[in-house]
Amino acid sequence: MTLPPVSATTTPDPALAYRDDLIAAGLLIPTGVDGLYGRSALFESVVTGLDDAVTRMAAGDGAEVMRFPPLLTREAFIASGYLKGFPHLAGTVHSFCGNEAEHHRMLAAIDRGEDWSQHERPADVVLTPAACYPIYPVIAGRGKLPDQGALVDVFSYCFRHEPSVDPCRMQMFRMRENVRIGSAGHVQTFRDTWRGRILGFVERLALPGALDVANDPFFGRAGKLMAEGQRDQQLKFEILIPVTSESNPTACISLNYHITHFGEIWPLRMADGELPHSSCVAFGIERLTLALFRHHGFDPATWPAGVRAELWPSP
Amino acid sequence: MTLPPVSATTTPDPALAYRDDLIAAGLLIPTGVDGLYGRSALFESVVTGLDDAVTRMAAGDGAEVMRFPPLLTREAFIASGYLKGFPHLAGTVHSFCGNEAEHHRMLAAIDRGEDWSQHERPADVVLTPAACYPIYPVIAGRGKLPDQGALVDVFSYCFRHEPSVDPCRMQMFRMRENVRIGSAGHVQTFRDTWRGRILGFVERLALPGALDVANDPFFGRAGKLMAEGQRDQQLKFEILIPVTSESNPTACISLNYHITHFGEIWPLRMADGELPHSSCVAFGIERLTLALFRHHGFDPATWPAGVRAELWPSP
Questions:
Q1: Shortest CA gap B33–chain A (Å)
Q2: Chain B interface, mutation test: which of A48, A74, A92, most B Cβ atoms within 10 Å?
Q3: Which residue of A36, A72, A103 is in closest CB contact with B125?
Q4: Cβ partners under 8 Å of residue A270, min gap 6
Q5: pLDDT tens track of chain B, all 315 residues?
Q6: Does A23 contact B at CB distance below 8 Å?
Q7: Is position B51 within any domain?
Q8: Residue B123, in any domain of the structure
């Protein structure tokens, strides 16, 4: 027996509607895959404004700038434990390594519309899930940390396998981070400093953001317990801004405390041999851009003077 | 019978030596995988200088700026024919889509050091092999081209699966392109204009570059014939600059004529229904950066005044 199709819902999806508006305005360029879009020059001007504003906020901190392509080594990815907590979001890279005969077989499979993945092998690299992941093995590889610990500034495209019509949930998006690795005291100072900075930042951007305790989207039932533990210990705070929903606002900036998690993995050591703590502040650049377009309109030339001054100060 | 190991060659590999110099100077940050590196702030300042210089060269052309993350839809990738010509360079993305039981099996396979790729499925996306690939379906999706054709400015990280110790052969690197789609006449004018521009550019950068007919690295025996055809028709020119080898200089800029190849695939149509021609000029940003460091030294502050003026003109 075949059931009749469910009638299409009449409740409009505000996330889908906002995406369509962004596409109609030419700010996002659709590709045919949900969560993968091109960006226009105007969209990118806001991205650059946000990136530069974060740089100015952190000016004088003396962070070491590192810029990685959005790939991580497979070895570092496995060591990070990401596949334990977030297997559903990961993206690994596979490549064809065969000879000409195998090439013909792969092309024939593609022509027949078959799965052709058996003609590929796992490559040495995976897509970066968060901008800070490449830096821990780099810092660990330098030996013991200096007395003052380490402070690193990273910016990269990141991948999360979560096809969605919500433009705030892209499969590939940019994350700007500052990462502090050092004593519990160093990290506490970093968290306190950035907590104040990000609250001031969203206020100057005239965005209705609120700071709240949060948790990562850990996978499965065990993940639920991890998420609860993370909340109980107040390890993660997020600046939540309504973008496509008032009741379910979007996390646009996060402030994360890893305690000694990454120190144990790599391993990182303080000058005195102790395990370092670490913390990072992460700006979701596309989400902040979409929040600005939502709250101030699609034409940055008409945005409030204070917002424009924060993003594009006069030289 | 076991043969004795071949004695290590005593000829130093100049590409490996240059990579080690770049790492020692802190310009490149090693990850443990050949061809995947972080970049320092100084490295990135040259990247930005080159990117801005290309923008100034093309100022007034009226190109539409599109910026894509370094992913392409799987569908567009297959349609492009890339897997026919360059299967060995491609990188596709795979993701875990299972339940908790499958998650446990995947983690167990990883713990045992086994291949765990059977726990993943092909995702809808692949890594971008060249910056211009995402734009053809976008332009085709708009319908017939306007009378003047199209001109697009793209910039993205690109992936090629070719692990190498040569720093000029990275697995992930940036490519800035301008792409012209239009009549044979439009494309001829574009090629002539950019031929002059890129020759002037390398001269102002004081790099020993020469323009030469070239071919793409097509795969296998059939690919050899395709490469010969490409050379015979003079479809590809490259600016070759010695970086890690005098006898085997590096292609740092390429000027490519696709005739109607991409028009046939998508399909693209001129206002009068004819198949458009297309051409692109592609700047290998990392390769140009490495050529500048090779020829002018690791400290841009000491580079010739004309080179500095080209990259960082006074406002």
A1: 7
A2: A92
A3: A36
A4: A144, A145, A149, A182, A183, A276
A5: 344 444 445 568 999 999 999 999 999 999 999 999 999 999 999 999 999 999 999 999 999 999 999 999 999 999 999 999 999 999 999 999 999 999 999 999 999 999 999 999 999 999 999 999 999 999 999 999 999 999 999 999 999 999 999 999 999 999 999 999 999 999 999 999 999 999 999 999 999 999 999 999 999 999 999 999 999 999 999 999 999 999 999 999 999 999 999 999 999 999 999 999 999 999 999 999 999 999 999 999 999 999 999 999 998
A6: no
A7: yes
A8: no
Q: If you count residue pairs, one on A and one on B, with CB atoms under 8 Å apart, how many are there?
A: 198
Nearest-Cα residue of chain A relative to residue B161: A95
Put the strands of the sheet holding A210-213 in their side by side order. A210-213, A236-241, A250-259, A277-284, A172-182, A150-159, A64-67, B37-40, B28-30
- Chain B contacts in chain A segment 98-117 (CB below 8 A): 98, 100, 103, 106-107, 110, 115, 117
Instruction: Render pLDDT for A116-140 as a digit per residue (tens, 0 to 9).
Output: 999 999 999 999 999 999 999 999 9
The answer to whether A159 contacts B93, with C-beta atoms less than 8 Å apart, is yes
Say if CB B176 and CB B282 are below 8 A apart.
yes
In angstroms, rounded to a whole number, what is the distance separating the alpha carbons of residues A169 and A173? 9
Q: Quick one: pLDDT band at residue A94, thresholds 50, 70, 90?
A: very high
B69-106 residue pLDDT tens: 999 999 999 999 999 999 999 999 999 999 999 999 99
On whether any CB of chain B is under 8 Å from the CB of A301, the answer is no
What whole-number distance in Å separates Cα of residue A309 and Cα of residue A314? 7
pLDDT of residue B279: 98
- Closest residue of chain B to A29, computed from CA coordinates: B138
ipTM confidence score: 0.95
Note whether residue B105 is domain-resident: no
Of the residues A67, A151, A155, A286, the best mutation for testing chain B's interface (the one with the most B CB atoms within 10 Å of its CB) is A67
Rounded to 5 degrees, φ, ψ at B72 are -125, 150
Question: A24 touching B, CB under 8 A?
Answer: no
Q: Per the structure, how many domains does chain B have?
A: 1
A180 belongs to a structural domain: yes
Task: Specify the amino acid at residue A179.
Answer: V
Beta strands in A196-305 (DSSP E): 210-213, 236-241, 250-259, 277-284
What is the rounded (10 degree) CA torsion for A191, A197, A202, A205?
Answer: -160
Nearest CA in chain B to A133: B31
- Give residue A215's domain range: 14-72+129-311
| CATH number assigned to the domain comprising residue B247 | 3.30.930.10
Tens of pLDDT, residue by residue over A144-155, are 999 999 999 999
Q: Where are the alpha helices (DSSP H) in A67-118?
A: 74-80, 82-85, 100-111
